[in-house]
Amino acid sequence: MKEFGEFHRPDIETMAREELVRLQLGRLKGQLKKCYEGSEFYRCRFDEIGLKPEDIRCLDDVEKIPPVTKDELREEQIDNPPLGRYVVAPQKDWRELHPSTGTTGVPVNTIWTEKDVENITQWTIRTLWTSGVRPGDIIQNSFAYGLWVAGMSSHYAAKQLGCFILPIGATMTERQIEYFQRPGSTVLLATPSYALFLSERMRQKGISGEQIPLRMGIFGGEAGAEVPASRRKIEEGLGIEAYDYYGLAEIGPTIASECRQKDGIHWVEDHVLVEIVDKDTKKRCAPGEIGVLILTHLTKEGTPLIRYWTNDYARLVFNKCACGRTHARSPGGILGRADDMIIYKGENFYPAQVEKVVRGFPELSAEYVVRLTTHEQSGADVVTVVAENATEEACTEEFKSRLKQALREELVVTPEVEILKLGTLARTEFKAKRIEDMRKKD
Hints:
By secondary structure, the protein is an alpha/beta fold.
């Protein structure tokens, strides 16, 4: 493949921090003015706290604005159907509708204008380039198409980038494997769960990663690609380099990606203002501290969101990456979701921590579920980590004891363990559901 430079837009990606902050502030002021004047939803929120757009004089002043949650957006759309009052662009400018994904609750609809489509395509080109995609690559796009935003945005970007696209979507597993061989895809876009499923099916068919031209994969839609054990399983199973990708429908499908340093996901800060705040105090966290991710659109026209509470946990650092990029990045990617937190025997943990342990054992398959039940006699919660054996050794009591010990070291508490026969747990072509809540309801 022809050699290309490290950066797609060096003028933006290596911009001095002071210059980037000035750009963000100018765009933020313009966005707040448009939202206040064009959206009754935002005008009411601002008026309730006695705030005017001109009161925001520096980026730190955004803390004066209360965050908006997905539940508030849902209620807004229910009370003011069909799209709520936070749509800013006039209907004549609407071009696409995209709902949030999530596994629970009513989807939140977002609108893209023509300019939104253009901006999203351009920054998606940049995020793909950051991970190593180049013109001439054969991209097997296994992100879901249709209303889910990631498939569409990455398709638009790959087309403009000069790649050959296989728009298969999250479906037809056997055909996916055929395409790895003929025409010989070089880049896979998928969820980490689906990548692991594909590697498992390849192994069952006697196909190794060395037998296919695939050289890299970019994985988003759920946590996993930056969990060391999961990354290792994906890379070894498919014979590739694996990179993390992040986005969400309400903000943008593809707004952060790993560079080849694999030292965190780089944010497209010229389009999105990124904050990390303490879950309880709502105050800004210091660089490197873990908190809740809050995102603000700087250029979105259709349905701009001001201080959107993502419910995702991450950290943020601002030092220049070894790759030369100056935009902020989040080491470790998305570390968990607030609504996935499990409280057990007074300790808190997340499915990603279970994933780290389970996928660190070669005796187990990549699949797992955290099952929540109620003890019949005491009524107390019971947490069971359900996994599958990849070898016969995983069925022994000695192995179960080792697995419990590893879980205790990671989680502080010791869950129950159940090992099932390989292939028992459901595989998915989309986002995996890792929590199975079977507790008795009052």
